């Protein structure tokens, strides 16, 4: 399932309109499937976040590898599914790059981390509500939209379901109504990994083409 989906959206070589010595645009914009995670790493991640990881996502990590596409893949690429290894590194980071550390992999925490902080959460939600969202919904993938004024987050819940949420910096009220309120009311996610992943892979390809042309 995953191999077919990845092959269907794989980025074709794109001519570089501004060639530079030693730089390969096509390689920079290619879809990358990273090395598979180990079962030990996945188990350590589950313990660290105190939340079961859906089996479909475990299979992606263990059998196929995490996915990234676009420049600066470690953090600012257009799209990436973080590997279990990378997530565990950030959750346990106590070194000189401790600013990169995540505490929970939670819904609010991860969104704020991607933006460098979003005061709307603290201004609108209680401490208890933020903790509830962080505990019950975990983010594992991020798409930077073409304008970079919006990010799409893929996440899972404690029942093993998946969801997809768009956060646009100019449309907080819509995000609050369409996403936060249902989650705070205990919404159970009912999509599969394929449901949320394949459309975002296609959107990531579109964004990359827009960047290149």
Write a short abstract of this structure.
The chain contains ten helices and six strands.
Helical content stands at 40-55%
The N- and C-terminal alpha carbons lie at a distance of 31 Å
The helix/strand series, from N terminus to C terminus, equals HHEHHEEHHHHEEEHH
Strand order of the largest sheet: 1-2-3-4-5-6
Largest sheet: 6 strands, antiparallel
Q: Which residues form runs of ≥5 with pLDDT under 50?
A: 207-213
Please indicate the count of domains. Answer: 1
- Give the number of DSSP strands: 6
| Beta-strand percentage range | 15-25%
As an assembly, this protein is single chain
Average pLDDT works out at 77
Rg estimate, integer Å: 17 Å
* Alpha plus pi helix count: 10
